From TrEMBL:
<dbReference type="GO" id="GO:0005886">
    <property type="term" value="C:plasma membrane"/>
</dbReference>
<keyword id="KW-1003">Cell membrane</keyword>
<dbReference type="InterPro" id="IPR005828">
    <property type="entry name" value="MFS_sugar_transport-like"/>
</dbReference>
<feature type="transmembrane region" description="Helical">
    <location>
        <begin position="191"/>
        <end position="210"/>
    </location>
</feature>
<keyword id="KW-0762">Sugar transport</keyword>
<dbReference type="InterPro" id="IPR005829">
    <property type="entry name" value="Sugar_transporter_CS"/>
</dbReference>
<feature type="transmembrane region" description="Helical">
    <location>
        <begin position="285"/>
        <end position="306"/>
    </location>
</feature>
<feature type="transmembrane region" description="Helical">
    <location>
        <begin position="115"/>
        <end position="135"/>
    </location>
</feature>
<keyword id="KW-1133">Transmembrane helix</keyword>
<feature type="transmembrane region" description="Helical">
    <location>
        <begin position="404"/>
        <end position="432"/>
    </location>
</feature>
<feature type="transmembrane region" description="Helical">
    <location>
        <begin position="246"/>
        <end position="265"/>
    </location>
</feature>
<dbReference type="InterPro" id="IPR020846">
    <property type="entry name" value="MFS_dom"/>
</dbReference>
<feature type="transmembrane region" description="Helical">
    <location>
        <begin position="313"/>
        <end position="330"/>
    </location>
</feature>
<dbReference type="GO" id="GO:0022857">
    <property type="term" value="F:transmembrane transporter activity"/>
</dbReference>
<feature type="transmembrane region" description="Helical">
    <location>
        <begin position="57"/>
        <end position="79"/>
    </location>
</feature>
<feature type="transmembrane region" description="Helical">
    <location>
        <begin position="444"/>
        <end position="464"/>
    </location>
</feature>
<feature type="transmembrane region" description="Helical">
    <location>
        <begin position="476"/>
        <end position="494"/>
    </location>
</feature>
């Protein structure tokens, strides 16, 4: 490489670990804030949208969730420019405040029953603020850590930043399950879902205190002292043909494919388990949470391994695994809850009727029909009805212990693919671009790849499965198609000379 700033020495391992900790804590909280919305999508669809068409309400919730991803590239442009002009530290301190504030505000918005269409409009606005903030956060954190790390271990040290996205999702699931357990199901569905949003304010305050003690990255401080920062990072990043070529290569040869693998293996998996397989809410979240927890260390494994054998081959192997194994994996997942292939136990059929008073004083009648199967699976059809209103039906399945752990294993395999493509990618992107435009240059392809191609995965996939004549697995053609294109481009155009060209 010809970028002399890469050779700036690290002040010591203790300082480096403090940098990683401070960056990771803040980034984890930002991911928690961003994903708490997606983790509660099923419940939020009943709170902020009309209930006349549950499928349309759920798709509207996913579309609102996806809107936060679509604006992430704009956040990358705005905050990337600031990061290359004034520094990494203060820029991603600002993004943290914006993210935490908007998340807290979502927890305060009245529901559709109270303010009508004002509710989804306010939620959409705050999701856009979240997306803009996250667009500036990741590039700053990854760049900050990479510019403190020695070049021969950059993959290893930046991989700890990579764990924060998955751990943020894990944290959001943990807070949801704990809150639900403490206050009860009915209270959680009614008002308790707000608690995870409101808790964000405490987490953000802690992170701000930690980040205020951080110093600017040594590489940026050096070029700033030497007067080598650029006046127009956007023009330098995207106006020069050589650098624009690297931006496009990063997007279509790596980050777009990485984005669809990431969101298929975690968010679409959760949507598929809850909406297509109808797995009971708590059990479905436990399945995802356990799979995430077991697989998370592999971000560091593959990040460190990329320092030895290169970034490209590991990332491309992850893409190939998704292309080859997604459909077999999801067919196996679906079979675990497919009641048509299970044997009922008629003698254990249970029907329960309950009458409860609503806040308005009306009698709500709930009828639960519970069916047991020989393999230990239990299915429930729950019918809830208010006077002079149509009954609302809900189906849910409790898996047997054996099927539960099989599904955990299938989720783990998908997250393992995620760790292969995501573990090395921060170091890969940092090394493509010179220091004075790195924040801007790496942030845009990352957030287009993840925010647009990846973030739209649940919405597009579920929309495809909703088409007439579609199978439950047709949604997978979207991530498989994007991953295939990236695999071909990455294998053909990404090689050792790529980095040399970028840093000439």
């Amino acid at each position: 490489m010809n970028d002399p700033q890469m050779l700036v020495p690290v002040e010591g391992k203790s300082k480096l670990w403090s940098v990683i900790t401070a960056s990771s804590v803040g980034t984890l909280i930002e991911w928690y804030d961003f994903y708490i919305f997606g983790s509660l999508a099923t419940i939020l669809s009943t709170q902020f949208f009309p209930l006349a068409n549950p499928t349309a309400a759920f798709l509207s919730t996913l579309a609102t969730f996806a809107a936060g991803f679509i604006v992430r590239p704009f956040g990358a442009l705005v905050f990337g420019r600031l990061g290359d002009l004034i520094g990494r530290k203060y820029t991603f301190l600002l993004t943290l405040v914006l993210m935490g504030g908007s998340t807290f505000a979502i927890g305060l918005i009245p529901g559709f029953a109270t303010i009508g269409y004002g509710a989804p409009i306010l939620v959409l606005i705050l999701r856009l603020v979240q997306g803009l903030a996250l667009g500036g956060e990741y590039g700053g954190a990854a760049t900050y850590v990479a510019e403190h790390a020695p070049a021969n271990k950059r993959g290893f040290y930046t991989s700890f930043i990579q764990t924060t996205a998955t751990m943020g999702l894990f944290l959001s699931l943990g807070v949801i399950l704990l809150t639900r357990h403490v206050i009860g199901v009915d209270s959680f569905n009614s008002w308790g879902w707000r608690i995870p949003f409101l808790l964000s304010s405490l987490l953000v305050i802690v992170s701000i205190v930690i980040r205020m003690r951080m110093h600017e990255s040594p590489l940026f401080a050096k070029i700033k002292a030497e007067g080598k920062t650029v006046k127009n990072p956007l023009k330098e990043s995207f106006g020069r043909k050589e650098n624009l070529k690297m931006v496009l290569l990063a997007l279509f040869g790596a980050t777009a494919g990485q984005g669809v693998i990431w969101y298929t293996g975690q968010f679409y998996a959760l949507s598929f388990i809850q909406k297509t397989m109808n797995i009971e809410f708590v059990q479905s979240n436990y399945i995802i949470a356990i799979g995430l927890l077991i697989a998370t260390p592999f971000f560091v494994v593959f990040g460190g391994w990329s320092d030895k054998i290169g970034r490209r081959n590991i990332m491309m192997a992850g893409l190939l695994c998704g292309i080859l194994f997604y459909r077999p994996i999801y067919k196996q997942m679906y079979a675990l809850s497919d009641l048509s292939i299970k044997t009922e136990m008629p003698a254990q059929l249970q029907i329960k009727n309950e009458i409860a008073k609503t806040e308005s004083g009306e009698n709500k009648v709930t009828r639960t029909t519970e069916t047991h199967y020989t393999d230990g699976t239990v299915s429930r059809i729950i019918s809830s009805q208010l006077p002079e209103q149509q009954a609302v039906l809900k189906s849910e399945v409790d898996l047997s212990t054996r099927s539960f752990w099989m599904l955990v294993g299938l989720v783990f395999v998908q997250v393992l693919f995620v760790t292969m493509v995501y573990g090395p990618i921060a170091a890969f992107l940092v090394e493509l671009f010179p220091t004075n435009i790195r924040y801007t240059s790496m942030s845009l392809p990352y957030h287009i790849g993840n925010g647009v191609f990846g973030g739209l995965t649940p919405f597009i996939a579920i929309s495809l499965t909703s088409l007439p004549g579609a199978t439950p697995f047709d949604g997978l053609w979207y991530p498989i198609g994007v991953a295939t294109i990236c695999l071909i481009i990455g294998m053909v155009y990404i090689n050792k000379s790529t980095y040399n060209t970028a840093n000439d």
